[in-house]
Fold this protein.
Amino acid sequence: MATVSPSLDYTLRLPRDLRSPGIGRATLRAVLAAHDLAELTPTAELLATELLTNAHQHTTREYALRVLEVGGRLRVGVWDRDWRVPRGFEEDVPVEADGECGRGLHLVRACAEGRGVSVGRGPGVSGGGKLLWVDCGAVVGLA
């Protein structure tokens, strides 16, 4: 009898609350463990932390964590209602030595296997906002 692997496609809507980035990370760890992808957790969690924290710090409303498989890769994304792409996400922007902002996006660019942005789309929301996404590694064994 054949076994069907569950799809890897999750969305977690998060309120604008100081606890939300931590809840997002915990959810990501649980999803990856449930799909036997724990080896991807360190990189995926680092990248998700940066995107979740950025959404929390720079927006005033709810945001959402997306975890899915795209083309055999683990994709982690964070959606928020602000359509502006953070400076430094797509291009390399110098960080001031004593600056408090911008270092996280350098980590994203350095650690992600791929990254991108979809403006005007969001989970369960028609129009508005942006989805910043990163690819974190190969997904093996999922149908």
Summary: The chain has three helices and five strands. Residues 36 and 140 are 9 Å apart (CA to CA). The chain has a mean pLDDT of 84.
